[in-house]
Write a structure and sequence with these properties.
The protein is an alpha+beta fold. It is built from 2 helices and 8 strands, in the order ααββββββββ.
Amino acid sequence: MKKWILLLLGLIVMSGLQSCDDFTDCIINTRPHLPHKDLDDGFVGNYYQDRVRSEIKNEPRDDAYWYYYTVIGLPAGMNYEFAGRDLFIYGTPQEAGRYSVQVFLEVEPRILVFDQDDGWDEDGDQLCSYTDERFFSLWIQ
């Protein structure tokens, strides 16, 4: 009798896990990731460029996603662009100081999966999260 109860409980738990996409999708914790690093130091009046390369944690197909970046807190004279997984910070800084640069990352799969209602199926890519953000330290002398 005890074995039947354990078997029944096991079946209930397994059926619950199969219907709970948010839980099952995040067992492996697949999500976008900005690296932990400081940006290279720069000098007022000199051209500056550095690169930040992102990834999808626990996903071997990092290049199967579109990467979109937003950067806040760059010094005057500097800007950013992104291509694929790479964020480029560049320009000629006009003021010295230590800057706290905030970077937001959002990803989406390159191949969209549509459900039966011709709508976007968010569970088609198995990501736990579609965003990441991090502060980077930038020293301009």
